[in-house]
Design a protein that fits this description.
By secondary structure, the protein is of the alpha+beta class. It has helices spanning about 1-5, 20-25, 35-45, 50-55, 65-80; strands at about 80-95, 95-110, 110, 115-125, 125-140. About 30% of the residues lie in helices and about 35% in strands. Strands 1, 2, 3, 4 and 5 form a 5-stranded antiparallel beta sheet that branches.
């Protein structure tokens, strides 16, 4: 893990993982929804299922009370997906809600699978959580 922490962060911030998303993955709370969104993307890229689960709002449609099954689903996704790039388009925060619009460039089972999503986050008891997402555009091929 020491060599991985010196690598560029999978969230494509331009920072080293150690100075970017690693502290969030180890328990530091992101101060805003944009940092949470970036750290969730990095967690998917690194297969840190517990972080994905712990930062998902219970009202999210993907929320699953069966944690072992949910972790297995996330792990399966990791093994069939490569996380290529993340592009942030918009970030708005109003009180305890926020939105982040982004494009994630991925390959899934060897096929290009980029998509643009507008994510909704809610701050609950001082913690930002991913509440829902609306796919705005699903591309057939990465540009």
């Amino acid at each position: 893990m020491n060599t991985a922490s010196k690598n560029p962060c999978p969230c494509h911030s331009g920072k080293a993982y150690e100075q970017c998303c690693k502290p969030f993955h180890e328990g530091t709370l992101p101060e805003n929804a944009l940092l949470l969104m970036r750290s969730r993307y990095a967690a998917y890229a690194l297969n840190i299922a517990d972080y994905i689960i712990d930062t998902t709002h219970p009202a999210n449609p993907q929320y699953n009370k069966n944690r072992p099954l949910w972790k297995e689903t996330i792990s399966q996704r990791y093994h069939s997906t490569k996380y290529i790039n993340l592009e942030i388009h918009d970030f708005k925060e109003r009180g305890s809600t926020a939105t982040v619009t982004f494009t994630a460039y991925l390959t899934h089972n060897g096929n290009d699978a980029p998509f643009t999503e507008k994510s909704v986050f809610e701050k609950v008891k001082g913690r930002w959580l991913y509440r829902s997402g609306q796919i705005l555009n699903f591309f057939e091929k990465a540009s």
